[in-house]
Amino acid sequence: MTVAGDHGRGNATNQLYYPEGLFVDDDQTMVIADTWNHRIIRWKIGDTHGQVVAGGNGEGNRLDQLKYPTDVLIDKETDSVIICDWLNRRVVRWSRRSGTTQGEIIINNITCWGLAMDDQTYLYISDIREHEVRRYQIGDKNGIIVAGGNGAGAGLNKLNWPTFVFVDRQQTVYVSDSNNHRVMKWNKGAKEGIVVAGGQGKGNTLTQLSNPYGLFVDTLGTLYVADWPNHRVMRWPKGAKQGTVIMAGNSSGAGANQFNWPRGLSFDRHGNLYVIDENKHRVQCFSIE
Q: pLDDT digit string (tens) for 110-160?
C-alpha cells in the first residue's frame, strides 16, 4: 500500500518529488529525503500529509537550506535528524525540537550519498566521488575508511559509486556498489570486501543486479536490495548465489504492488518493508512473509 505521496510530483505537503532515502522510526514515523524538493519530510503512517522537518526553503547552501538531500536518519540520542546534503557536499544535523529553523554542519567536503548509524552512534557515510565509506564519531571531521578508498574499480578492495549503506551490530558494513552492480560486505577491519549479491555484470537474471541502491540486512544475514533499473526488490539469503524477486514492477508500474525505480528501503520493527518508489513520487509499504 502507499503510505506517502502518490499525488504526482510537487512540493505540497502531500507530495514528493523524486525522493531517494528514508528512515522508519519505532513508532512507524518515516523521515524521507524528498530530494528534488530540497527538504526532509516526516510522515506518520496513516496521515495524508507530511511535515517538513529540514530544508524546504528552496535549493541552496544556507544553513536553513538543502541541495538535493539523498539520505536521512533519526539520531535519538540528540533528538535530531542527520542528513546527506549531497550537492552541498556536507552532512548536516537538524534538531527535531519545535522551532528549529536551521541545521548545523557536522561534516564538510564529502560527496555523500548514504548514511547509517551503529549501536554505538558511529556514523557511516558513503562518498561517491572518493568511492569509499568512512566511519565517523560525531564531532570528528575526518573519519576512518571502512570500505573502499582505493579509487574506483571492480577489485574486492574497491568500490565504484557506493550509494546506500547498512551496518549491523558487529559493525559489518554492507554497501550498494552501484556501478559494479553488486552489494559488498566489509567485515570490521577488513582490507577487502566480499560480494554478497550480484557481481555478475549488469542484468536482470536472478544472479544479477543493475545499479543497486537501497539495502537492509536482517538479523539472519538476509539481504534486501532495491534493484532500481529492473524495477524490483530482491532478497538474497546469507551465502546464496542468487536472489529471489519479492516485489516487482515495470517501467510503467503504477499499481499498488508495483515499482517504477525503487530506491531507498527500510523496515519497521514489525517486519514491514518500506520502499521509495522514486519515479512515482511515493513510498510503498509491504508486509513481508
A: 999 999 999 999 999 999 999 999 999 988 889 999 999 999 999 999 999
Mean residue pLDDT across the chain: 94
Q: Which of the listed CATH numbers 1.10.150.20, 2.120.10.30, 1.10.260.40, 3.30.1330.130 matches domain 112-247?
A: 2.120.10.30
Q: What is the amino acid identity at position 11?
A: N
Model confidence, pTM = 0.95
3-state SS, the chain, equals CEEEECCCECCCCCCECCCCCEEECCCCEEEEEEHHHCEEEEEECCCCCCEEEEECCCECCCCCCECCEEEEEEECCCCEEEEEEHHHCEEEEEECCCCCCCCEEEEECCCEEEEEECCCCEEEEEECCCCEEEEEECCCCCCEEEEECCCECCCCCCECCEEEEEECCCCCEEEEEHHHCEEEEECCCCCCCEEEEECCCECCCCCCECCCCCEEECCCCCEEEEEHHHCEEEEECCCCCCCEEEEECCCCCCCCCCCCCEEEEEECCCCEEEEEEHHHCEEEEEECC
The neighbour count for residue 73, using CB atoms within 10 Å, is 22
At residue 249, does pLDDT exceed 90? no
Instruction: State the residue for C-alpha cell 564529502.
Output: 110
75, pLDDT greater than 70: yes
pLDDT of residue 256: 63
Average pLDDT over residues 271-288: 91
Do 163 and 172 form a contact (C-beta atoms < 8 A)? no
CATH class of 1-109: mainly beta
Q: Is 112-247 in the same CATH topology as 1-109?
A: no
Sorted by where each begins, the domain ranges of the chain are 1-109, 112-247
